[in-house]
Amino acid sequence: MRRKVKVLIVDDQRSIRNMLTSIIGTLGGEVVGEAENGEEAVAKCAALQPDMILMDITMPKMDGIEALKHIMTTRPDTLVIMLTSHNTAEIVQECIAYGAKNFLLKSNSINVLCEELKLTWAEYCKTLQGV
Question: CB–CB of 33/48 below 8 Å?
């Protein structure tokens, strides 16, 4: 039996974390933890060693881009998908440059978010299987 993909959800809004937890459940993943800011994300990533992180960019204490930089230095194989309300080319390019694998807009409908996550999820699962 294949193990479930372990996911850490990082967002300062509980409603977004709840929505993402629901989506991950439908995809067959396991949410192993949640964080409300970048500092918590870095600590929980080290402790929980998730396969995937869904992370907001704009958060208190440490933003998602700074957290991404820290996480990629210690766990470069972690699949990080950034979430934001801001859609600027500079932010997208910065996230990709620091190791994020995808970038999703929170303003999308839940159906669009689910579909975009499914695509990234499927690609990631293929890499786990060595396909």
Answer: yes
36 vs 28 pLDDT, higher one: 36
CATH at residue 57: 3.40.50.2300
Per-residue pLDDT of 105-127, as tens digits, reads: 877 777 888 888 878 877 776 76
Specify the number of domains making up the chain.
Answer: 1
pTM for the structure as a whole? 0.88
Considering only the C-alpha atoms of the chain, give the largest distance between any 2 of them, rounded to a whole number of Å.
42
Range(s) of the domain holding residue 69: 6-129
